């Protein structure tokens, strides 16, 4: 059984990542995603994390996964009546 806290690919413990800037950015993005209030407090007044809805750090199938999501944008948003970029969706 898969549980919400199991992360298939965890960059904080991934030995293939080195000390490069890219690896540091990957780790920081993961921390923002899993601990949003501490890493990006200005965007989370409710104290929720991205991980609250996107289970297994966005890597769980059929649970709002984020893998490949960039290819879905831009998309039309009926509520706002305009095209939404991925940046719009994250901020909204």
Core attributes:
92 residues, mainly alpha, two-stranded antiparallel sheet, 4 helices
Explained architecture:
With 92 residues, the protein is mainly alpha-helical. It is built from four helices and two strands, in the order H-H-H-E-E-H. Strands 1-2 form a two-stranded antiparallel sheet. Strand 1 (75-77) and strand 2 (82-84) form a beta hairpin. It starts with 20 loop residues before the first helix and ends with a helix.
The amount of helix comes to 25-40%
The spatial strand order of the largest sheet comes to 1-2
Q: Quote the average pLDDT.
A: 85
| Distance between the amino and carboxyl termini | 32 Å
Taking Cα atoms only, what radius of gyration do you get, to the nearest Å? 15 Å
Shape field: globular
Number of strands: 2
Major sheet: 2 strands, antiparallel
**Count of separate DSSP helical elements:** 4
Provide the structure class: mainly alpha
Strand share of the residues? Answer: 5-15%
Give me the secondary-structure topology.
Elements: H1 21-34, H2 36-39, H3 55-58, E1 75-77, E2 82-84, H4 86-91
Antiparallel strand pairs: 1-2
Task: Describe the structure concisely.
By secondary structure, the protein is mainly alpha-helical. It contains 4 helices and 2 strands.
């Amino acid at each position: 059984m898969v549980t919400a806290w199991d992360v298939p690919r965890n960059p904080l413990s991934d030995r293939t990542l080195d000390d490069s800037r890219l690896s540091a950015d990957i780790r920081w993005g993961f921390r923002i995603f899993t601990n949003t209030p501490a890493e990006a407090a200005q965007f989370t007044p409710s104290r929720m994390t991205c991980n609250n809805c996107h289970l297994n750090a966005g890597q769980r199938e059929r649970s709002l996964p984020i893998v490949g999501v960039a290819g879905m944008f831009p998309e039309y948003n009926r509520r706002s009546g305009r095209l939404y970029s991925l940046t719009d969706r994250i901020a909204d």
